[in-house]
Amino acid sequence: MEQVIQKVKTVREIAPTIKKEETKRSYKQLRVAAYCRVSTDSDEQEMSFGAQVEYYTDKIMRNPEWSLAGIYADDGISGTQAVKRPDFMKMIRQCRKGNIDLIITKSVSRFARNTVDCLNYVRELKALGVAVIFEKEGLNTMNTTSEIYISMHGIFAQSESESLSGNVRMGKAISAKKGNVAFSYKNFLGYRRGADNKPEIDPEQAEIVRFIFDRYLAGDSLSIIKYSLESKAILTPTGKNMWSVATIRSILTNEKYKGDALLQKTYVVDCITHKSKRNDDRPQYYVENNHPAIIPRETFDKAQEEMARRTSKRKVKEIGTKTESGKYSSKYALTDLLICGHCGTPYRRCTWSKNGKKKIVWRCINRLDYGKKYCSESPSIEESVLQKAIVDCIKQVLQDESGYAAIENLKLHVNMYFGKDDENSTVEDEARVKELIQAITEAASSGEYSAEMQSMVDELNRIKSIIAEKKVKQTSAKKSAGRLDEILEAVDLLKDQPIEFNNQAIRKLIECIKVISKNEILIIFKGGFEKNVPLG
Fold this sequence. Notes:
single chain; 4-stranded mixed sheet; 4 domains; Rossmann fold; 5-stranded mixed sheet
């Protein structure tokens, strides 16, 4: 039997293969980039920013083994989101293209204040063979133990950002409580920074704001106002040619145009994502008469009422549609005003065609969509007959002084309701409130509770309640008087010119038109004056 000889096991070391790239780098300079960032725009930080750029340029150029691959710097931009730092992202793109071998930066907090961003970019750069040196911490990302230290420093940097964000939020809240109003003049139409550093009206831009309010109260829809502005080549607050409906709505609802300011409308939820939300759970502060008003307070309030009215238009289900429709129409005033006197449903404009001839009529939507099932009495009325009846009614009001006098008389009653006596008594009541508060404070300082003190507290609460009721009454009366003034103004203008059916004038004068029968309509003017008008 042949004997098996066991051979001796040996281990031989194989030297690593020298890569072509490594040979190149042994005699070629490393392409080094520096990243700088400052987080505020103060003069001191501006100097720091310039100093950083100068420092890194000098440092790289003096090293014979390095060549300058660029100084990337974001000035005055938050470090919590990398995507919002343009130069940082530009540097990352150059790394991905293989144009940078090494990045040097002052510290982890300069590189990123978001821990997740910091680690993700460090790992990506490491995979690309690009090292990052953090000078302050003495870390090089190519070292195996560097990541844990970078994570720790990243957490500290993020925590610092969150702390700073909390301080800023608290500072803003305190500032708002004091009534300090900040203006973003760059994107705000109508105002500019004045010589005293306070807002002043920009006459040219203010005319645009007034135009928007005037057209809206005249009955134009937001879309029509948008096209009007674009046709006049008027630029948006941000300098664009194309307006949006949202921008126009924002202007119409911004209280700053009447000289007031609502503070803390929104707040930042997270300093990392910078997401903000509408403020429904924190204190807000309303500052009255903070700056010159472009729009009179009464006009601004009318615009809010009109917006609420259009938004709350009665919804009507139409056949063939999945949802109800109640959209405001600026084209035809009757779409907004004409309703069925039997079922209360709005009328709709329709086109009848017979023997090649077309005729415009108005029909009850219930009757039109469902037949006589829900409304068996409503008539269809020709548009020309309807418009003639409305114009004739307005003529009668103008020619018959009793109609005009009825509106003036109503205004007189409103003014009597909101009289000087009420104003004077309110002033007296407010003076008494101050006296009571002072007396209660003095009594409370003695530390003894007495029946007299309780009596003063009860009187104080009673007077405050009376003042509140009077103010509600006065506000309501002022609005009614304002509406009647508008009606009288519109009527005065129509007195001296031929009267034709005009959608804008109809909206200003008339609150509602009820179709009573095929022979009669009821016109209700704004302010409550009513008149039955025959058809045909």
